[in-house]
Amino acid sequence: MTDKFPEAFNRFKEDVNVRNIKTWKQLQLAFGSWAGKKWVPTGKQLDGLAIQARKLGIKRKDTAQEKNTLREYSKLQEKQE
């Protein structure tokens, strides 16, 4: 299975002026808004976004609440599988 995230992020950069994005939270909000319902902030998607963020010079900073939400979401996903 190939990683589609870099391809999606390149399309995002074509539509959004990423030079104006300075923080992790701004990047999350901008990408989530751009991607719409396809953006589900799972651990894998956030990791993919973090890789692209590093290329832009943005450090990933999850808040404690976001980390808890990710844990809970992961538990729900595991139960559904």
Please explain how this structure is put together.
The chain is an all-alpha fold. The protein has one domain. The protein has helices at residues 5-15, 24-35, 43-55, 64-80. The longest helix is centred in the last third of the chain and has 17 residues, at 64-80. The protein starts with a helix and ends with a helix.
Q: Distance between termini?
A: 19 Å
**Strand content bin:** under 5%
Tally of separate helices: 4
Helix and strand content put the structural class at mainly alpha
Q: Please state the average pLDDT score.
A: 83
Instruction: Say how many strands there are.
Output: 0
Biggest sheet character: none
Helices and strands, in N-to-C order?
HHHH
Secondary structure: helix percent: 55-70%
Query: What are the segments in which pLDDT stays under 50 over at least 5 consecutive residues?
Result: none
Alpha-carbon Rg, integer: 13 Å
Number of domains: 1
Shape category:
globular
